[in-house]
Amino acid sequence: MSAPESRHEILFTPIQLGPKTAPNRFYQTPHASGLGDSAGAGAALRATKAEGGWGVVNTEAVKISVESDMSGFRTMSWMLDQSDVRNWKRTCDEAHSHGALIGIELLVTASKSSGLGTREPAGRVSAIQNPGDFNAGYYELDSDDIKRVQQQYVDAAIMSRDAGFDIVNIYGCEGAGLPLEFLSPWYNKRTDSYGGSFENRARFWLEVLEKVRNAVGNDVAITARFNPSETNGRGSATNLDPEGLRFIEIADDLVDFWDIQLGRPGQLASSSSPAARFGVENYAGEWTREIKALTTKPVVAPGWFTSADEMARVLKSGQQDLIGAARPSIADPFLPNKIRSGDFDSIRECIGCNVCVSRYDHGSRIVCTQNATLGEEYRRGWHPERFAPSTKAEAPVLIVGAGPAGLELASVLARRGHETVHLLDAASAIGGHYRWVPKLPNLSAWSRIIDYREGVLRQHPGVEIITNTRLTAADILDYGATTVVIATGSSWSTEGINGWSREGIPGADTTTSWQFTPEQLVAEEQQLDGDNVLVFDCDGYYMAPSIAERLMLEGKKVTLVSPYPEVGRWLAHTGERDLIRRLAQAGVSIVPSTLVKSVSAGEVQLASAGVDSREWTMNVDAVVWVTQRVSNDALYRELLAEPEHLAANEIDTLLKVGDCRAPRMHLADTIFDAHRLGREFDSDNPAVPLPFIREHRVLGWSDDDYDAPLRESRKLLPIEPRR
């Protein structure tokens, strides 16, 4: 492998972590995957990152007690017995085969235990119920319980060492780990030797670290994942807590390095993954420097790092010793190798949309907007940098629509060796609706979606991009392609069609001068006159709040109405709920649980969507409808209606993809749809997904029986450097 540029050389220097040596400074921080006990999928996900150059890869938080059950909102894995050791050994072996260290994050949950799967109550530092919790109950740990739980950490650490892990991480942050609950006076209301004073509250975590070090400390590196801003209250990250900093000082001799998880200073949420609208690269730098000054051990911390220059600067400054990253490693598992080879243009930069967080927090598999192969490495045999040659590479392909789906499909086909792919769009530039979405406040990072794919296509002369060209069905029939894919996307309803009334809203009509869709307002830059604007949100994601923010910044008086009990409800799952609070503080009127019944010039009829039947009117100058997107599939339907014309013009395959097929809430699903189609383009019927490996128990099957389909699918092209 080529040597890195001199200014980035520090990123590739080894570093000692206790008894282990990390080969470089790229540290994939622990992050949830939603893969649970799918051992093959989990191993392949982490092995891919190790192959991509991450010197340290980590598991997610791994439950080490039956009581640590988060069923209902998080799918997680276990380290309970020798069956888990066997499964984790596969993960360790695959990571080691690429020269990486691998760490495991040990978790005993407390306040976040649900008991929905195990039916067991959870032991807590103090048996105080959280408001609105659904669980099998809590009990306060007594002295025998504390010894039992501490031994669970020791047993799990020994099993982790035996499985092949290099690092054992004692987890205590995000309001989830029992050690944090003992340390925090917000949780800890005990009056015995484990409660009251700081020294008493720190005792549990210190004892766990000491016991684990005595058991395995000569064989593995010991660390603690900790957020020193969380000890003074649940979810509070507005400042570093003095007691959190003090804990680092008194526990320093018990760890080999610190895995620090920090939010953005001043941000209400404690998330270490601030969304793009709130985050900047190295967002936690000032806090990390303060923590680094307190310890004699190496420090790793996150910072939404995507720039090689910034990573190198951070290390050279002494701010920290390793580059911590979860989301950048998700978006591009090969980020380190690309930096080393100087292949910067091919990096898939994280856009900070946090769809990854939103999915695994719902108990489902992790997904990524930029990287459609994430979590599919094993079950579908997809590699982010290698593609199987197509058996239909000589057949000319026409893709109508150069939005995210069309671009993704074209890039996959190009990498599979297709010789002639024409990508057409009626607009003057590629990108579809992602030409204008990044123009919304603080979403400029989302333009990376188009930038990356355009960069890929520049390297493949077999793909020709043609803009300012609107095709009719007759044009397509005459074009000369044997395969036609319609990727014309979707548009916001112009008549307020929504899932609440199952029809349009009486009076909604965006051909008038005072009613608008998001496209008309932002992409077409139509003039919105007047001051009083109502934004109606049936979408529940980023669009309506972002439109409201844009109008508010333009000086409009904005009312944001939604039938949901919470406006922009999905923002709670992407770490962006704070946007709604900021809008309210800035004067935007937030009106949840409310329907728009009808609209006429200057007036909107509203009705409660809650328990009462109240109705009222509101005077407005303009309305923006963010109700439902409708597929732009007329062209596809017209072609499909006359199969004899397709056959007469030697078009043997007609497909639709992306939002033209079905509008998605998350762009990640639109891009996945296109990626899947490209990977399976030469199957018998590419419109129907091929079977994939399901890791479920099949009586009589061996490991080879599971892996045979994967081995067949991995007849892939080698990774080639860019020309």
Verbal overview:
It is a single chain. With about 725 residues, the chain is an alpha/beta fold. It has three domains: about 5-350, TIM Barrel (Alpha-Beta Barrel); about 395-490 and about 630-710, Rossmann fold; about 495-630, FAD/NAD(P)-binding domain (3-Layer(bba) Sandwich), CATH 3.50.50.60. About 30% of the residues lie in helices and about 15% in strands. The strands form seven sheets. Strands 3-12-11-10-9-8-5-4 form an eight-stranded parallel β-sheet. α3 packs parallel to α5 (about 200-215), α12 packs parallel to α13 (about 450-460) and α12 packs parallel to α20 (about 665-680).
Indicate the proportion of strand residues: 15-25%
Mean pLDDT: 92
Query: What is the radius of gyration?
Result: 27 Å
Distance between the termini: 16 Å
For this structure, the CATH topology of the largest domain is TIM Barrel
Which shape, going by the Cα principal axes? Answer: globular
How is the quaternary structure best described?
single chain
Strand order of the largest sheet: 3-12-11-10-9-8-5-4
Label the CATH architecture of the largest domain: Alpha-Beta Barrel
Largest sheet: 8 strands, parallel
By CATH reckoning, the class of the largest domain would read Alpha Beta
Query: Which class of secondary structure composition applies to the elements?
Result: alpha/beta
